[in-house]
Amino acid sequence: MKPTYDGVNALLFQLVTCPECFYTTFESDFENPVPPEKQRIVAELCERLKKMISVDLSENRTLKDGASLFTVAAAIYTLLGKHLKAAEAYLKLAWLLRDLNNSEEEKKALSGALKHFTESYMNEELSEQQQIMVIFYLGELNARLSNKNEAIKWFSTLIQKFGNSNSAYVKLARKEWQEVSARK
Length: 184
Known about the structure:
By secondary structure, the protein is mainly alpha-helical. It folds into two domains: 1-102, no CATH class; 125-184. It has eight helices and two strands. Strands 1-2 form a two-stranded antiparallel ribbon. Helix 2 (36-52) runs antiparallel to helix 3 (63-80), helix 5 (103-123) packs antiparallel against helix 6 (128-144) and helix 6 packs antiparallel against helix 7 (148-162). The longest helix is centred in the middle third of the chain and has 21 residues, at 103-123. It is globular. The chain starts with 14 loop residues before the first strand and ends with a helix. 37% of the residues are buried.
């Protein structure tokens, strides 16, 4: 489900970053207040990351800049306990790392996405569409990480639970289930 763009890579601009404090989230979350009990620790994390990571926040962002920002967002969402958002940040980080031909770091990001999608599925209240997406990625990430039996289990769960859905995720899960099942 990784998008490919002609021209400007829109992934590089899905996150909003405060140039002063380095707080970085998806645009839809940027204006939401950080819970008071987490403000100090989030501010400390952002301060540490700002010292460690140099990024271009202009329209001239590179894949490396994008990967750095998704790393920051993943850390912030993890700290806030927002597993679905952390999973999405790790997944998009993995996509950028794939474009950078960094397969070792891509696998680490895929593992982070898998961990947070699992946490989200087990512990967060998800809409039906979110459940479909999460279960699909539990199958897909397990397949990419060579966990064949887990991948088949999650694709089967998605097909059994939401087989009547018109979701692109369900349609793709059927195809992926067949491909993973056929692997030796």
